[in-house]
Backbone:
C-alpha cells in the first residue's frame, strides 16, 4: 500500500504500509525519500515486507540508486530484511553505533563489510541527493540506541516507535489527537522507557517546524495533532515510572 506523504519539485517522501494481518505479525510502515536521482529508505522492515516494498519501490524509483538504508534501531521489524537489501543495492547502512556490530547477524558473512556507518549518540546529518536528513537522538524510545529522522525539506519527522498507534488504518492521517489516544496509550506506556526521556525529547523537537509525525506503525499525525502529541507525550508516565516491587517476583 503506497501513500505519498510529500511531493515538491525534486523531493518526495513515500510511505509503504505493509499489511501483515494474515501473518499474525505487527503492521509496519517503510519509507522512501527521493531527492533528484538519489534515494534513501528508512526502516526497510523484515522479510514479510520485503517483496511488496521492493516491487512498489521499482514503480517509483530504481532501487539500485539508493544511497542509504537507514535504521532507527535494530529490531527485526526494522531491518531483518537487510541481507536482501545488501544484495539488491550498493547502499550504505546507517544505524546507531551501539548496534553497528550486531546487524551483520541479519546477513550472510561479509555482506555488510565496509558498508555500515555508525550514527554517534549525538546524531548526525545524512545526505540524500541535494538534501539532508537529520538523525535526532531518541534513545530509550524504546531502544537503547535509537534515532528519529527529521526531513527539513518536507517538514516530516520519521519518529520510529514514538507516536505509534495500534489497530488503525495507516492511510488515514490523524489531525485531532484526542480520539486517537486510545490507540496509542497502551503501546507508549509499555514500550517507552520513562517519562523523563519523553520530556527531553519534547524539549528537543518543539522548536522544529514539524508538518507531520510519521511513525513506523499505524497512522501519521498532522495539523493540530502534531503539537497535541508532543504535549501529551511530555506529560506521560510510562515504562519504569509504572513499575513496582510487585512486578519483580518469583512466579508462584
Residues:
Amino acid at each position: 500500500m503506497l501513500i505519498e506523504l510529500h511531493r515538491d519539485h525534486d523531493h518526495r517522501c513515500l510511505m509503504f504500509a505493509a499489511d501483515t494481518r494474515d501473518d499474525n505479525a505487527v503492521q509496519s510502515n517503510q519509507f522512501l525519500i527521493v531527492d533528484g536521482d538519489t534515494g534513501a529508505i528508512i526502516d526497510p522492515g523484515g522479510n514479510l515486507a520485503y517483496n511488496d516494498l521492493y516491487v512498489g519501490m521499482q514503480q517509483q524509483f530504481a532501487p539500485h540508486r539508493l544511497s542509504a538504508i537507514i535504521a532507527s534501531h535494530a529490531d527485526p521489524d526494522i531491518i531483518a530484511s537487510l541481507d536482501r537489501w545488501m544484495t539488491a543495492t550498493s547502499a550504505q547502512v546507517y544505524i546507531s553505533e551501539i548496534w553497528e556490530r550486531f546487524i551483520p547477524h541479519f546477513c550472510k558473512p561479509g555482506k555488510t563489510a565496509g558498508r555500515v556507518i555508525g550514527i554517534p549518540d549525538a546524531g548526525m546529518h545524512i545526505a540524500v541527493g541535494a538534501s539532508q536528513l537529520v538523525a535526532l537522538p531518541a534513545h530509550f524510545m524504546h531502544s537503547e540506541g535509537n534515532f528519529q529522522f527529521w526531513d527539513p525539506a518536507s517538514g516530516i519527522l520519521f519518529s520510529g516507535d514514538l507516536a505509534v498507534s495500534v489497530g488503525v488504518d495507516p492511510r488515514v492521517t490523524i489531525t485531532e489527537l484526542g480520539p486517537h489516544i486510545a490507540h496509542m496509550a497502551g503501546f507508549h506506556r509499555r514500550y517507552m522507557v520513562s517519562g523523563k526521556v519523553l520530556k527531553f525529547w519534547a524539549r528537543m523537537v518543539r522548536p522544529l517546524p514539524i508538518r507531520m509525525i510519521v511513525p513506523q506503525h499505524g497512522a501519521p499525525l498532522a495539523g493540530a495533532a502534531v503539537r497535541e502529541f508532543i504535549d501529551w507525550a511530555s506529560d506521560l508516565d510510562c515504562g519504569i515510572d509504572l513499575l513496582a516491587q510487585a512486578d519483580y517476583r518469583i512466579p508462584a
Remarks:
- The first helix runs from residue 47 to 58.
- The chain has a mean pLDDT of 94.
